[in-house]
Amino acid sequence: MIFVATIRVLPKSEVRDPQGEAVRGALRSLGLAVSDVRTGKEIVVTFEAADETAARDAVRVMGTELLANPVIEDYAYELEEGAPV
Amino acid sequence: MTRVAILRYPGTWSERDFQHALSLVPGVESDILWHEVADLAGYDAAIVPGGFTYGDYVRAGAIAKISPATRELRRFADAGKLVLGSCNGFQILCEAGLLPGALVRNRGLEFRCDWVHMRVERDDTPWTTGLRGAVLRMPIAHGEGCWVADDETLADVESRAQVVFRYTDERGGATAAANPNGSLANIAGICNEGRNVVGLMPHPERCSEALLGGTDGYRVLANLAPALAGTAPAIYR
Q1: How far apart are CA B235 and CA B237, in angstroms?
Q2: Disulfide engineering: B231 pairs with which of A23, A45, B202, B226, CB 3.0-4.6 Å?
Q3: Chain segment B184-235, per-residue pLDDT in tens
Q4: Do B58 and A66 touch (CB under 8 A)?
Q5: Which residue on chain A is closest to B58 by alpha carbon?
Q6: What's the confidence (pLDDT) of residue B62?
Q7: Which of A14, A39, A69 to probe by mutation at the B interface, max B CB count within 10 Å?
Q8: How far is the C-alpha of B202 from the C-alpha of B224, rounded, in Å?
Q9: Residues of B in contact with A67 (CB under 8 A)
């Protein structure tokens, strides 16, 4: 089966996000009442797995082994069945 | 002869500088090893140089950590062999879990290319023998050199005396102004619990001869041969 995982990586709440702080300052300079900005990244992965359980296992490997560093980042994901590319 | 392996990943750029600097150290010979075929058998020490491995994609050092060379490096370190990582090499060692914490975007967001001072906190690592309390002057060049960890990890690193280098002013004062990137506790370099793996953001290979503006890097690299020849404390032999 083909799956598409949309994986979102954000800095942990206790880790300072200087990029987010810079974006907050820039948005405030547009006159907007922005109190906080956190920046991260979204990674969309199309892959094959036997079933949904195996697909979720695979996404956990992607998240913990490469896409997020558990020392500084958290990740979350959504999983959908996809069409072959 | 002390044999040193210098690892080269795609995007590593300080490997030749390290090889040149090590060529100045009596009794040391080095080879540059491509990461896909890096066999560390027969080497006494390994160096992970600076650069932008894999373009810093995902995070600095993140993709390099799953390279065959890094798996080999983990075995090498577990066997008690000496490992030094500088700049991107330090980031790789943290990503690989060989050193605690992580290196994130500099507090001020800017890429810092400058000379800094740092105080040697510990001389019970093979790379800093005889240097305790010395204030070294070395160049830095990084955008992601802010060392962070959770409170518990920081407390452990301090209580186990794993802080090897701390950013200071030229008199050795660890002030906020002397911290170029926002690292917790002005940390410039740390070691693992076994003390055989050391990582630092500054570049010892770029200050190993007077022509380049400083020789304090040589003072670190020159510790290699005695550490392995047995004139250093026994735990590093």
Answers
A1: 6
A2: B226
A3: 999 999 999 999 999 999 999 999 999 999 999 999 999 988 877 765 544 4
A4: yes
A5: A67
A6: 96
A7: A69
A8: 18
A9: 58
Measured CA to CA, the distance from residue B212 to residue B194 in angstroms comes to: 33
**ipTM of this model?**
0.86
Q: Which residue from B59, B109, B182 is facing A69, i.e. has the nearest CB?
A: B59
Whether residue A58 has pLDDT greater than 70:
yes
Residues ≥6 apart with Cβ < 8 Å to A30: none
Residues B71, B46 contacting (CB under 8 angstroms)? no
Q: How many CB pairs under 8 A join A and B?
A: 37
Q: Do the Cβ atoms of B190 and B163 come closer than 8 Å?
A: yes
Tell me which chain A residue has its CA closest to the CA of residue B108: A18
> Which residue type is seen at B220?
V
Helices (DSSP H) in B106-237: which residue ranges?
Answer: 151-159, 216-221, 224-229
List the Cα angle B109/B112/B113 in 5-degree steps: 160
Length of chain B: 237
